[in-house]
Structures are given as C-alpha cells and as structure tokens.
UniProtKB/TrEMBL annotation:
Residues 337-396 form the CzcB-like C-terminal circularly permuted SH3-like domain. InterPro entries: Beta-barrel_RND_2, BSH_CusB, CzcB_C, HMBD, MFP_Cation_Efflux. Coiled coil: none annotated. Residues 124-252 form the CusB-like barrel-sandwich hybrid domain. It holds the Pfam family Beta-barrel_RND_2. Belongs to the membrane fusion protein (MFP) (TC 8.A.1) family. GO terms for molecular function: transition metal ion binding. One of its GO terms (cellular component) is outer membrane-bounded periplasmic space. It comes from Candidatus Desantisbacteria bacterium CG23_combo_of_CG06-09_8_20_14_all_40_23. SUPFAM superfamilies: HlyD-like secretion proteins (SSF111369). GO terms for biological process: copper ion export; plasma membrane copper ion transport. This is Efflux transporter periplasmic adaptor subunit. Residues 256-328 form the CusB-like beta-barrel domain.
Amino acid sequence: MKRKILALGVILLIISGVFVLTQRYQRNATHQQKTAIKQIYSCPMHPDYTSDRSGQCPICGMTLVLKKASEIKGEKTEKGVIFISPEKQQLIGVKTANVGFVSLQKLIAAKGLVDYDERRIFSINTKFEGWIEKLFVNYTGKLVKKGEPLFTIYSPELVSAQEEYLLSLKNREIGKNSQFEEIKVSSQSMVEATERRLKLWDITDEQIKQLEEKGEMTKTLIVHSQNEGFVIEKMVVEGMKIMPGESLYKIADLSSVWIIADIYEQDIPLVKIGQVAEISLLSGKVLRGRITYIYPYLEGELRTVKVRIEVANPGYVLKPNSYVNVGIKVELGRRLAVVDSAVIDTGERQLVILAREDGHFKPVDVKLGVKVEGFCEVLEGIKEGDEVVTNANFLIDSESRMKEALSGMTGESSKGEHHH
C-alpha cells in the first residue's frame, strides 16, 4: 500500500514538473515572438527591404532603422497601401494638396504669319487707253496718300471727252436765252451727260471744275490715287501705252493686317470666332486682335488648322510675311482639378497617390480631362476634398508597386517580414 502511494506521488510530481516547464516554454516563446516582431529593421529609402538584424541596406547603403510596432501592423493593410512614418515623409520630401474646383484657363500658343488684308489691296488702272507722260510714284514700297497724284496720261478719248464737255457748256449758255423750254432742257441734259462720262472715267470733281473755269481742254490729265497704302507692285513706266483695265500699280493698306496662325488639331474645338488673340512681337510689344475666320480644312502634314486673326497695325509695326507668336486664352470655367505634379502618367494609365490618415498612402487610377497651365482636370477617380501627394509621388508609387510584387512572391507572409 505504501508503495502504491509512493508511486502515485512520483507520477503527480512528474506531471507537475512537465506542466511548469510547458508554461515556462510558452512564456519564453511568446516573449521571443514579441521580441522578433519588435526587432525588424528596414531601409528609410526602400521600406520594402526588411531584416531582423541591424546593418546597411544592400540596395542603397543607408543604415537600417528599427521598425515600430505600428509600422509592422500597418504592413497588413489592403493591397497597394503602404505606411510611411512622419520622419520618412520628411526625409523623402512628401507634400500634399487638397482636390478642389479651380477656375481653369488654357493658353493656346501658336506661330502666326503676317499677311495682307485681302480686302485692303487695290489695283490702279484706267478705263481708257493712253500713254504715260510722267510718273509721280515711281518705285515699289512708297506710301501713297489718298488723292496723291500718281502719273499724267495723254488719251485721245479723254481729249475728245473734254471737247464735248466744253461744247455742251457753250450750248447751255446759248440755250439760256432761247424762248423754247425744250432747248434749255436739252442743253442742260447734254452738259450732265458729258460730265457724267468724265466722272465714269474717274475724272475728279475738282478737275472738271478747273476744266469749266479755264474753258479749254488739257492734253494730259493727272490720275490721282483713290486709296491710301503702300505700293507693293509697280508695272508702269514713263512712255508706256496702257489699255483700259490694265493693272498699273497694286497698293496695300497696312493699317490693318491678317495673322494666319496654325492651331493644332486637338485645340481647334476650343477656338471660336470672336475670341481675342494676343500677338507678341520680337520687340516685346503685344497687340490684340480678334479671330474672324477658321479655315474649313486641315493641313495634312502638320495636322493643324489655319485661323485668321484681324489686328490693327499702328505704325505699321507688323510686316507682311514676318512671323509672330500668337496666344489665345480660353476660359474653361470652374472644374475639379489637381496640380499637374500630382499626376503620374505611365502612358497607359494616369495615377495619383491618395494620402490617408495615419501616414498611409495608396495609388488611385484617375480619368483626366483638359490639361492647362499647372492643373489637370479630373473626371473620375477622386473627389473634392481628397488629399493627394504632389511631391515624391513617383517614389511612393514605386514603393507601392514593389510591395505588391514582393507580396506576390512571398504569399503576403503573416510574419510581416522578408529578406533580400
């Protein structure tokens, strides 16, 4: 009986010892596990590189830093989301901005060619044949004032017309003393008819008045310019015989000119007739004109559409066939937008890095609209009030992609660590 009691005591003692040892082992294991979790080191520049030992990062050579428990816990967030501590954010220069509505203005820049206003080009000719006696405007480029004499011309037809006019004047004087009203009316009608013929030949009222006052015809007649402008073509010389309608001079009024600007195909929907365009000269001076016509065809090689801008030309500073810079500002109104530095454009996708609370960041696909100076319109993906990264976003995106790739290789280890 004593032996049985002794044996039972030994067994109980053994069981008690095993239980004590098991509890101590479990406590030690838990302590070691907690210690292992806390003793994880990572690279400040490459957070996805981790190690259970201190040292240097094999990628960039920076000293590894000990990760906090909150950082380790943050690694178990959703796919693509990474945690960056405030210290690391400051180190890599993370900056953010809120998404909101902005009054957008797009500047369309183009090259323009100065051209003559086709409505202000005039051809100088006569309506009768004759011979040029003397030229007063005898070189190309001369500025001609309206009413300025151009040349003198001898024309047998013109001499005959003057004689007929003078004869009609004499007959009118005789008819005034006639007792027959029909003769008075007829003589007056003759004067009006011969005077009208001279006017149809562009003889001025002043010249007709001088003819009437002198009472004798002149061999040659001075032809005056009916327009003001620069002589851009001269086809006449002294002694030359001319025919009715033959072009003798071409005169261009340069007080207003056209600018023909080439607008790229994608910008044409934003261009409207009546919009103001700014013309920048090499001297720094800026002129303003208005779009008056959009050509209905596309230049095949350049993929541009020509736009005609009408602009006043004070001092004739705009020279035909010279190039100028054209700027057209288009008001787009208030639209949801982000600064362009917040957008990562891979060619196939456009991304922004969404900044969440507690230092978490996630790349988000967005659909963009127009891109203007400093801003991108946002159509889909984010909303007003969201906070996005505007600086160091490429670095954050690359780290997020690296995390996804490494997670795929390691099966998203529950221990939250991997070694390179």
